[in-house]
Amino acid sequence: MIHFDTEHPSDFTAREALLDRVMGRARVLKPSERLRRGRLPARGLALVARAGAKLVGTVRLWNVTAGDTPALLLGPLAVDQAAQTEGIGSDLMRFAIARAASLGHEGIILVGDPEYYERFGFSADITGGLLMPAHVERRRFLGLEFAHGALTAAAGLIVATGDAVSDARIAA
């Protein structure tokens, strides 16, 4: 049985090991990582999936501004390779989206495969006026709005606005 929950500080080691197994160490070189580095995830939006005591999935959302518009940056989303055919990633995405909407956020952006994320309502059409701090493929730069026009009307650079941490290990 899979249980979805808020991440706990004790999940750090298991989460990092999961991300390394699924995405490799090169994950820290991605443009989105520049926005996450040294920051805490958005309050209540560091989420995990557990099979018993084992952490099998993770996703975090981060506070950013999209031009002048407050938004969230999603990522990374990862599911243990042994559990990837069980729908855990999809369920974790739905959990994250529902939690973000219930907390009053206006939209989410991410860089990812549109073939996967479009099923949750993400679209590259929404991010046309926005720029990441480094080059990303436009077709992979996706957004989802909770407030009509919140991201579609936004223009400018994506900038991290989340709380900074002094212990980078916590924000990794």
Text of the CATH class: Alpha Beta
CATH superfamily: Gcn5-related N-acetyltransferase (GNAT)
Structural class category = alpha+beta
Give the biggest sheet: 9 strands, mixed
Strand content: 25-35%
Give a summary of the structure in a few sentences:
This protein is α+β, with helices and mostly antiparallel strands and 172 residues long. Helix content is 24%, strand content 28%. The protein contains five helices and nine strands.
Description:
The chain is of the alpha+beta class and 172 residues long. The chain has a single domain, classed as 3-Layer(aba) Sandwich (Aminopeptidase). The chain has helices at 12-23, 31-36, 88-102, 114-117, 168-171; strands at 2-6, 46-51, 54-66, 69-74, 78-79, 107-111, 130-131, 141-145, 156-160. Strands 1, 2, 3, 4, 5, 6, 7, 8 and 9 form a nine-stranded mixed sheet that branches. A hairpin with a 2-residue loop joins strand 3 and strand 4 (69-74). The longest helix is centred in the middle third of the chain and has 15 residues, at 88-102.
Annotate the secondary structure layout:
Elements: E1 2-6, H1 12-23, H2 31-36, E2 46-51, E3 54-66, E4 69-74, E5 78-79, H3 88-102, E6 107-111, H4 114-117, E7 130-131, E8 141-145, E9 156-160, H5 168-171
